[in-house]
Amino acid sequence: MRIVDIKEDKALLEKLRGGSGDALRPIYEKYKTDMLAFALAMCRDRAAAEDVVHDAFISFAGIARSLELRTNLKGYLLTSIANRIRNIQKAEARCAASIGNLDPADLSAHPPAPPTNAPEEEERLQRALAELPDSQREVVILHHLEGLKFRSIAKSQEESINTIQSRYRYGMQKMRAIFAKGNGNA
Asked: The domain spanning residue 49 has which CATH number?
């Protein structure tokens, strides 16, 4: 994230703290695409992703005046979305287990791949991401697809940078193994 963006975010947050509702729109406009792309990558259901983004932003709007931001605003918003999706998935898994007619494994996130030129490659990437544990998939998406730095991810998740880097490394190793196996190389 550029220093200009951080300064702009801080200025917008100060406007919010001062009671200016006009500061919400530029924040939403600035980050809505990233927020939706991340939500789609985590849950693969456009309607659910849009709901999560809107819920996260409404929650942000409600606490923005008292928010003490420990990381950049984009990282905060994306982490908020990830937490909401995890909570929804856990609730769905509990419900499925208690009802007994759904397989909780079917409720795991199957993130879409970023656009590629070859549909086969996109499908392979989707399957590989879907096979990663949630913690690794989240870090891979945040770092590789959303461009967040490890330090920013670590701060937003309240984890050490080493933990975040390990999750990324293990996630990428697993994806390479999946691709090698799919190519008949394993």
From this structure: 1.10.1740.10
